[in-house]
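cron nightly-structures :: item 1 of 1
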Amino acid sequence: MSVKDLIVNSKKTAFSFEILPPLKGNGIEEIYNTIDELREFDPKYIDITTHRSQLVYRTLENGLYQCERVRQRPGTVAVAAAIKNKYNIDVVPHILCSGFSKWETEYVLIDLDFLGIYDLLLLRGDKAKHVNAYMPDAEGYSHAIELQEQIKRYNEGFFLDGSQKKHKSTHLFTYGVAGYPEKHDEAPNVASDIYWLKKKIENGADYIVTQMFFDNKKFFDFVERCRQEGINVPIVPGLKPITKMNQLTSLPKTFHLDMPEELAAELRKCKTDEEARHVGVEWCTMQSKELMAGGVPCIHFYSMSSAKSIKTIAKNVY
């Protein structure tokens, strides 16, 4: 059953969350601990992020610098397989344009096909840290819609070189794409953002999961604009509870979003991260209840450093 089917057929607002693969050199135990904390709320699926490599300069013994490509969080496919095997919960690995060639993407699809993992989230991904603007890798893609075309051809039984698969998969890859209630920071305007989102849906995306937001009105306005443009797939709101004082400024800067003044004012009063976490739980609980009353099919939680808070929120609303 695809993610779209799982959330549409849920008898109540579905629950899902996202995790990050462990940093290189660390074990998977922290991920298992997060899932153990949250599995009582019957997650319909778990997203696993993918991270591009970055350029790192190392100092050699002779004093010169050596540039290396390093991926801090490898293992998305392995983590997805481990979760599926251990918990029998549907998993959704992210597939990125950023930092990957089309050939690397094909190898990932082959591995996922072998593992029986067919739900994906397709994203362009962020720019590399050492450049000012997004640039595709050599033989990579500039837009998620190009990933869609590759997956379409793979589903039809063709590899990038034009050769055909010797076996027919019993399943086809399905996928969701990202939406931005406050507009992608590189989009010239909201209309352009919605235009390209509609193109992704017309090209085969099953559902939309949004970037985090803290103002529900912006989400509901986004959904209304999508519906007016004929986008009728499920739109899943993505929420992240505040857990630290510095997120008052770091989240808006990193994710190009606004914080309502009511929330900002409460966070400015906080003297400790624990106080900020309590504010975050209260605000996210309010958001969740309002979204559920508004009929959203699922709420997707970004769980980085937030499992404790998400568990409290889920107890409040599920």
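cron nightly-structures :: done
The mean pLDDT is 91.
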